[in-house]
């Protein structure tokens, strides 16, 4: 599903070069719920951005869902993101002028889906994440946990190959975080959804099937662990 | 393409519907004022030009002026010619005028002026000077020892109140003396004073043509014939019609007669108009650019998110351009309402220019041009900042 090989990322900060990633290689299989973990500054968000095509590496090779994504133009990458990837950001990143339902169906609208179809799909997914009664609420009318569930519904609406989540519980209390992680686990288990999530909270570890531990921009180790069983897609 | 437009329109619609209403109203009002600015000054200029033109027709020339043939000093057989022209279809009236140079004197103040001899009853049908009496009454056909004079030449006792040379405060009942260039001296009772606001007419002295014929010894002659047609605005065709009916004298339209100072004034106004329009458009570009720039910069993060979830920059830019076009349309509509109000007010309470009251003349073409230019500059001013922000790196935009 994802094959990363020798991924490096160097930021040029004036005269200083900052090596955020020093050559990261690993693979992720379809249907896995993978955690990328590490302390602050370890390069986990940088890696997620590169895997999710929000940033380009300085060097390396990256294959996502069978496509050499680094060879794609910006426009092709945009279309790839739309059709095959989903994102959940740390601070929800909802469009404030849209309702929950509109935030969710927006990418279906961009894909050219018919009105009836995208409305039905978006409602179903919001129902799925427990927000069936909050469809017409705007961001300011939703709690943090609800906003994050809208963001998850938005990430899932186009049935992406992979959902990337960048510290989705960072702004949430423990109880709400647990709700969100349970939701991810259920989506992974019931839909076989491949999820790659960045976290620095050690207690999140038990939700993941695999954990990629990063330290100073390098893979420190990869742990395979028993994960919640899921059906093969 | 259509799907793209659908997405851009959706985003634009929601941004307008749920964005900051205060900013939206302010922006619409700014555009409305820019629109009024684009149309208002040209409408005043057009009003001034229309006023000068109307004055030319109503007080100076009628619609057409018949002048002596080349190398001749006067129109001979004026009476017959007047009757011939009056029978031409579409001609309302013809007024023969005879002019003679002279010096007008009152209480020791003298001014060189052309004295105009008119047939009062005919002149009343061609020009409207007789309706603009501010003192006394107009001439009658039988008057020989009376004159009517303009407000400007009559003047004021206090010369500081005069805008041009004057006789220093003539009133009805006073007598003025005219010394003609042929040496004849006549004393006329001032029967009336008129104020037309036409510079040249208000500086004139009128006596009857019969009186002037007596002074000059000329009989059945005219210096010019003023022709009033039933319909205004068709002067060129009427000139050809007069020629086709055998008029051999020189026929000029009022537009030709008005060239010169009025033409220069009109051309000067046209240049001022052009400069004003260009300045207004630059203001429009800058204002819209700033508004859209602030708007897009404030939404950098949102633009980054839209790109991250797979929305192409061209759709994002499209949504901003649509917003600008909607705002521009609303601004133009509000501007039209505002303009209609201003025009209505100024129609009831006209601006008083030195040349007379000016009613704004709003021309449809001018309005259409202003709306079109506003849309063009809005599109440009909206596109550039949106394109700039939408072209940023996703992470940079998201981080704001």
Radius of gyration of chain B: 31 Å
- Biggest interface and residues each: A-B, 27 and 24 residues
Strand content of chain B: 15-25%
| SSE order of chain A, one letter for each helix or strand | EEEHEEHEHHHEHEEE
Figure out the total of helices of chain A. Answer: 6
Mean pLDDT level of chain B = 90
What is the number of strand segments of chain B?
A: 14
Measured between the Cα atoms of the first and last residue of chain A, the distance is 13 Å
The class by helix and strand makeup of chain A works out as alpha/beta
| Approximate helicity band of chain A | 25-40%
Distance between the termini of chain B: 29 Å
The biggest beta sheet of chain A reads: 6 strands, mixed
What is the radius of gyration of chain A? 17 Å
> Which descriptor suits the 3D outline of chain B?
elongated
Taken in chain order, the helices and strands of chain B follow as HHEEHEEHEEHEEEHEEHEHHHHEEHH
Low-confidence stretches of chain A: 229-233
Helix content estimate of chain B:
40-55%
Cα shape of chain A: globular
- Order of strands in the sheet with most strands of chain B: 3-4-9-6-8-7
- Seen as an oligomer or otherwise, the chain set is heterodimer
Task: Describe what this molecule looks like in 3D.
The complex is a heterodimer of chains A (233) and B (400). Chain A is an alpha/beta fold and 233 residues long. Chain A has 6 helices and 10 strands, in the order βββαββαβαααβαβββ. In chain A, strands 6-7-8-3-9-10 form a 6-stranded mixed beta sheet. The longest helix of chain A has 18 residues, at 174-191. Chain A starts with a strand and ends in a 9-residue tail after the last strand. Chain B has helices at residues 2-18, 21-61, 78-86, 120-126, 151-154, 209-216, 235-244, 254-258, 261-298, 300-308, 313-348, 364-390, 394-399; strands at 64-67, 75-76, 91-106, 109-118, 133-136, 146-150, 175-180, 185-194, 205-208, 221-222, 224-229, 250-253, 351-353, 356-358. Chain B is an alpha+beta fold and 400 residues long. In chain B, helix 1 (2-18) packs across helix 11. Chain B contains 13 helices and 14 strands. Chains A and B meet through helix 2 and helix 3 of A and helix 1, helix 10 and helix 13 of B.
């Amino acid at each position: 599903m994802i094959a990363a090989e020798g991924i490096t990322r160097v930021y040029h900060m004036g005269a200083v070069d900052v090596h955020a990633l020093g050559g990261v290689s690993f693979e992720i299989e379809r249907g896995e719920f993978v955690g990328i973990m590490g302390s602050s500054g370890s390069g986990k968000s940088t890696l997620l951005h590169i895997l999710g095509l929000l940033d380009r590496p300085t060097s390396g090779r990256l294959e996502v869902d069978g496509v050499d994504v680094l060879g794609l133009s910006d426009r092709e990458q945009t279309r790839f993101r739309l059709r095959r990837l989903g994102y959940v950001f740390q601070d929800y990143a909802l469009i404030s002028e849209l309702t929950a339902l509109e935030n969710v169906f927006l990418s279906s609208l961009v894909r050219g889906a018919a009105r009836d179809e995208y409305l039905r799909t978006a409602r179903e997914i919001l129902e799925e994440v427990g927000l069936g009664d909050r469809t017409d609420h705007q961001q300011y009318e939703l709690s943090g946990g609800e906003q994050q569930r809208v963001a998850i519904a938005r990430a899932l609406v186009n049935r992406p190959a992979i959902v990337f989540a960048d510290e989705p519980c960072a702004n949430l209390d423990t109880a709400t975080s647990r709700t969100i992680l349970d939701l991810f686990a259920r989506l992974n288990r019931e839909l076989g959804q491949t999820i790659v999530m960045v976290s620095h909270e050690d207690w999140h570890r038990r939700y993941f099937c695999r954990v990629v531990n990063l330290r100073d921009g390098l893979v420190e180790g990869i742990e395979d662990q028993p994960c919640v069983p899921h059906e093969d897609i | 393409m259509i799907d793209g437009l659908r997405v851009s329109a959706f985003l634009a619609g929601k941004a307008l519907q749920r964005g900051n209403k205060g900013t939206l109203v302010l922006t619409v009002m700014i555009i409305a004022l820019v629109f009024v600015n684009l149309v208002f000054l040209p409408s005043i200029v057009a009003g001034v030009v229309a006023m000068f033109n109307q004055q030319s027709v109503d007080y100076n020339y009628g619609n057409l002026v018949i002048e002596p043939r080349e190398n001749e000093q006067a129109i001979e057989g004026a009476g017959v010619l007047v009757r011939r022209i009056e029978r031409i279809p579409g001609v309302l009236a013809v007024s023969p005028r005879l002019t003679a140079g002279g010096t007008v004197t009152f209480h020791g103040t003298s001014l060189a002026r052309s004295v105009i001899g008119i047939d009062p009853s005919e002149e009343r049908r061609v020009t409207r000077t007789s309706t603009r009496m501010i003192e006394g009454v107009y001439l009658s056909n039988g008057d020989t020892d009376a004159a009517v004079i303009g407000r400007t030449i009559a003047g004021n006792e206090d010369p500081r109140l005069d805008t041009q040379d004057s006789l220093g405060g003539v009133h009805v009942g006073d007598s003025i003396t005219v010394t003609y260039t042929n040496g004849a001296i006549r004393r006329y009772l001032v029967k009336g004073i008129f104020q037309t606001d036409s510079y040249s007419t208000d500086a004139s002295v009128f006596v009857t043509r019969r009186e002037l014929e007596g002074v000059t010894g000329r009989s059945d002659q005219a210096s010019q014939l003023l022709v009033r047609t039933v319909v205004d605005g068709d002067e060129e065709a009427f000139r050809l019609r007069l020629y086709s009916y055998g008029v051999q004298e020189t026929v000029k339209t009022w537009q030709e007669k008005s060239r010169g100072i009025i033409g220069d004034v009109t051309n000067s106004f046209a240049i001022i108009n052009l400069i004003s329009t260009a300045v207004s458009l630059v203001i429009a570009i800058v204002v819209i650019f700033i508004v859209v720039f602030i708007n897009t910069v404030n939404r950098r993060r949102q633009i980054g998110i839209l790109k991250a979830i797979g929305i192409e920059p061209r759709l994002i830019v499209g949504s901003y351009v649509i917003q600008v076009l909607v705002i521009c349309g609303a601004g133009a509509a509000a501007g039209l309402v505002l303009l209609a109000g201003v025009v209505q007010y100024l129609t009831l309470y006209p601006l008083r220019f030195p040349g007379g009251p000016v009613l704004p003349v709003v021309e449809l073409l001018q309005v259409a041009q202003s709306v079109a230019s506003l849309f063009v500059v809005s599109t440009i001013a909206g596109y550039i900042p949106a394109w700039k922000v939408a072209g940023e790196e996703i992470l940079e935009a998201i981080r704001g």
